[in-house]
């Protein structure tokens, strides 16, 4: 029942330790029976793989191996753990409890913020071996990542680069860290990974030849020194090379330190520094050194304990070669970090274990991996952001809240008004970072603007915004077309392609679509357009002057423009006033009627009293022209809105009017029965608008309401 792969652990164990490992394995095998991995193999393969890494690659004692098996057997089942706890030591149970607590944390709970998650791991790891076991667990998962569903691969890849690799770096476990980095690279960017690994294979023989030629002149000198050494040719990982390519902005061929010559010296502890510098001296006597690239981590070790002497030299052909000089102890430390303190030269005493654990815990609690994490993030071309439910979203680097909203759903992006990022309010333009948890806030009245294109970086968001802007522009153009068609009909003029072409040419526009949009946006004055179409007036300056003109000075209608009374923005002028029977507004076809009091009343041509006044009192009529009024001038009019439904539609009507920037001065709504026992509403509304184009927009908007059937203009004030 005990697999052969465990022999590598058991053969070096005492009788008690062997019994402990076998006992914990049998328990896990029994508890996990029937559970399968993604490839259909028994799940017990996972804890077995982790146990082998813990013992053989990290160098932990059998107690940690037992903790691995017990953890997987009792994950999420504290009661079961308590049942078997009496059969194991307190230190093992403490490790298992820590592992179970960490495994119970979901990205939704932690928001996968790297620093917070690291702190949780440390706080839950009363025994620092828990952290090392978690690193081993992640390494086993990454080695077998292909068996997981695609939906979870990216999450695990992100967790690895943001959480576990910084932890390995923090502990100086460079072997484990390098393998995790390459596995991350393989799955996050498979195309570049394959390209670099293929080039490494293609140039392998060249590197071997170069190494042989490099060491040949040094062999005699080093032998004469009496220094015992071993030479390693260390090729950089694909991920490390890729980082250099990104940082230096060079191709693979431009990275001249693809590999390093590593001298590992077997010398007494007290002579380490002297012999390392001795070897450095002999190497630089033979080859020209680059003094700018000398790194002395022997005199001043890195915070994580790394010790080595690095330099770069140049051979006679101009090839740059990195040289690393260190002792056996330093090399062990460089490869396995603080774990090496425990495994180096077989130090296995209880006292030694305690001291080592204290050192690991101190390193975890005092060191800050954020520098490494930030450096990694700067090199990535994408970020990984989470929804409140823990769903992972991959976005381009520099992505904003708005990019995230469009990534979730196009409709959500269109209505996005802001967000909560890690619980704090953020605007749509705020930049996101890996690990952020984003909750989008939306507003049904929100609409995209051209400025949004300056905020987003993702192609999905840009394309959707452009499409929405085009859609909105087409809607406004259609409204402008309706407005023009209506006016042309009132003016008894024909609207055809030739007329549209003349209008576009007159206003220096390229197409009729621009004309319609300009009409809706009131950039074209319809009265002046009428004059152009009817009189053929030509204006040199394109769009008409928007500055209001002075009011007419002649009370009875004579002006500088012939027999016309000019109506300007001084509507309180005693010479004229708006007739209350029809409430004319700027842009209406109107006429003046001299009242008995001497003042002039301005009526709409369509006024109910117009026909009678024109027929009975033709001698009291006055021709009238509108002049541009100020933007602040408001005209009062009324609308009657009829449709299917009840009075509850009133709120929607008022909301619609307010959105068109029209002021509501009066409002009433009633219900009446139609044949078939159906309900019909009739709303009477008094509003203030700037001109008849403004009134048209209000009318068109009201007609868009599904329940509305008819919108009529009234004289209500």
Structure characterization notes:
With 717 residues, this protein is α+β, with helices and mostly antiparallel strands. The strands form 6 sheets. Strands 1, 2, 3, 4, 5 and 6 form a 6-stranded mixed beta sheet that branches. β9 and β10 (424-426) form a beta hairpin. α9 (129-143) runs parallel beside α11 (174-188), α11 crosses α12 (190-202) and α13 packs across α15 (272-286).
Apparent shape: elongated
CATH topology of the largest domain: Hypothetical protein af1432
Mean pLDDT: 81
Q: Helical region count?
A: 28
Instruction: Estimate nothing, just give the exact number of structural domains.
Output: 6
The share of residues in helices is 40-55%
Main β sheet profile: 6 strands, mixed
* Uncertain runs: 341-352, 369-373, 536-562
Classified in CATH, the superfamily of the largest domain is Hypothetical protein af1432
CATH architecture of the largest domain: Orthogonal Bundle
Helix- and strand-based class?
Answer: alpha+beta
- Tell me the fraction of residues in β-strands, as a range: 15-25%
Question: Any descriptors?
Answer:
21 strands, Beta Polymerase, domain 2, Ubiquitin-like (UB roll), 47% helix, 717 residues, elongated, 28 helices, six-stranded mixed β-sheet
Question: Topology of this protein?
Answer:
Elements: H1 7-10, H2 15-31, H3 45-58, H4 62-74, H5 78-84, H6 90-103, H7 107-110, H8 114-124, H9 129-143, H10 150-170, H11 174-188, H12 190-202, H13 204-225, E1 229-235, H14 238-248, E2 259-265, H15 272-286, E3 288-289, E4 295-296, E5 309-314, E6 320-327, H16 328-336, H17 339-343, H18 350-366, H19 370-379, E7 382-386, E8 392-396, H20 401-408, H21 410-414, E9 416-421, E10 424-426, E11 438-442, H22 459-490, H23 497-506, H24 512-520, H25 526-535, E12 565-567, E13 576-578, E14 590-594, E15 600-604, H26 610-616, E16 621-622, E17 624-626, E18 635-644, H27 650-659, E19 663-674, E20 678-689, H28 692-703, E21 708-714
Helix pairs in contact: 2-4, 3-4, 3-9, 4-6, 6-9, 8-10, 9-10, 9-11, 10-11, 10-19, 11-12, 12-14, 13-15, 22-24
């Amino acid at each position: 029942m005990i697999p052969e792969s465990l022999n590598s652990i058991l053969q070096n164990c005492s009788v008690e330790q062997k019994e402990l490992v076998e006992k914990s394995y049998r328990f896990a095998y029994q508890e996990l029976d029937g559970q399968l991995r993604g490839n259909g193999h028994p799940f017990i393969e996972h804890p077995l793989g982790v146990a082998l890494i813990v013992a053989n690659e990290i160098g932990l004692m059998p107690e940690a191996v037992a903790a691995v098996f017990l953890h997987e057997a009792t994950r999420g089942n504290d009661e079961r753990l308590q049942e078997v706890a009496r059969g194991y030591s307190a230190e093992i149970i403490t490790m298992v409890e820590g592992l179970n607590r960490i495994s119970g944390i979901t990205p939704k709970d932690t928001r996968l913020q790297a620093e917070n998650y690291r702190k949780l791991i440390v706080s839950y790891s009363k025994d620092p071996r828990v952290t090392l076991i978690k690193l081993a667990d992640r390494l086993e998962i990454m080695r077998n990542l292909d068996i997981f569903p695609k939906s979870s691969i990216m999450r695990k890849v992100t967790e690895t680069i943001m959480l576990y690799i910084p932890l390995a770096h923090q502990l100086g476990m460079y072997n484990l860290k390098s393998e995790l980095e390459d596995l991350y690279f393989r799955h996050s960017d498979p195309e570049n990974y394959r390209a670099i690994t293929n080039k490494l294979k293609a140039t392998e023989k060249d590197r071997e030849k170069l190494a042989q030629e490099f060491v040949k002149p040094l062999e005699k000198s080093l032998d004469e020194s009496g220094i015992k050494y071993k030479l390693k040719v260390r090729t950089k990982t694909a991920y490390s090379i890729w980082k250099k390519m990104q940082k230096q902005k060079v191709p693979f061929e431009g990275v001249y330190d693809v590999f390093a010559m590593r001298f590992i010296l077997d010398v007494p502890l007290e002579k380490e520094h002297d012999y390392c510098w001795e070897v450095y001296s002999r190497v630089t006597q033979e080859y020209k050194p680059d003094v700018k690239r000398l790194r002395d981590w022997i005199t001043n070790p890195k915070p994580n304990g790394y010790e080595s002497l690095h330099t770069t030299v140049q051979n006679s052909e101009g090839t740059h070669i990195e040289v690393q000089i260190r002792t056996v102890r330093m090399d062990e430390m460089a490869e396995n970090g603080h774990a090496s303190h425990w495994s180096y030269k077989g130090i296995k005493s209880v006292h030694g274990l305690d001291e080592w654990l204290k050192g690991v815990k101190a390193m975890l609690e005092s060191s800050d991996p954020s520098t490494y994490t930030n450096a990694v993030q700067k090199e990535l071309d994408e970020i990984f952001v989470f929804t409140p439910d823990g769903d992972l979203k991959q976005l381009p680097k520099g992505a904003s809240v708005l990019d995230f909203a469009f990534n979730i759903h196009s409709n959500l992006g269109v209505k996005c008004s802001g967000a909560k990022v890690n619980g704090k309010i953020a605007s749509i333009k705020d930049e996101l970072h890996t690990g952020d948890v984003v909750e989008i806030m939306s507003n049904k009245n929100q609409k995209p603007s051209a400025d949004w294109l300056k905020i987003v970086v993702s192609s999905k968001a840009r394309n959707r915004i452009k499409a929405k802007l085009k859609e909105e522009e087409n809607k406004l153009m259609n409204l402008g077309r309706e407005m023009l068609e209506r006016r042309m009909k009132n003016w008894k003029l024909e609207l055809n392609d030739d007329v549209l072409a003349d209008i576009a040419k007159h206003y220096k526009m390229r197409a009729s679509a621009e004309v319609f949009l300009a009409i809706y946006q009131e950039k074209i004055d319809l009265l002046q357009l009428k004059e152009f179409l009817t009189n053929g007036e030509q204006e040199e300056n394109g769009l008409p002057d928007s500055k209001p003109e002075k009011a007419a000075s002649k009370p009875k209608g004579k002006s500088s423009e012939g027999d016309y009374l000019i109506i300007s923005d001084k509507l309180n002028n005693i010479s004229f006033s708006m007739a209350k029977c029809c409430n004319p507004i700027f842009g209406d076809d109107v006429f003046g009627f001299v009242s008995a009091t001497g003042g002039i009343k301005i009526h709409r041509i369509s006024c109910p009293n117009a026909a009678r006044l024109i027929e009975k009192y033709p001698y009291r009529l006055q021709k009238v022209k509108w002049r541009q009024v100020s933007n602040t001038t408001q005209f009062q009019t009324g609308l009657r809105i009829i449709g299917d439904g009840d009075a509850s539609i009133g709120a929607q009507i008022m909301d619609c009017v307010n959105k068109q920037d029209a002021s509501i001065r009066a409002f009433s709504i009633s219900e009446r029965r139609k044949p078939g026992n159906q309900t019909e509403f009739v709303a009477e509304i008094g509003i203030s608008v700037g001109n008849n184009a403004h009134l048209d927009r209000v009318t068109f908007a009201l007609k868009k309401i599904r329940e509305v059937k008819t919108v009529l203009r009234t004289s209500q004030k």
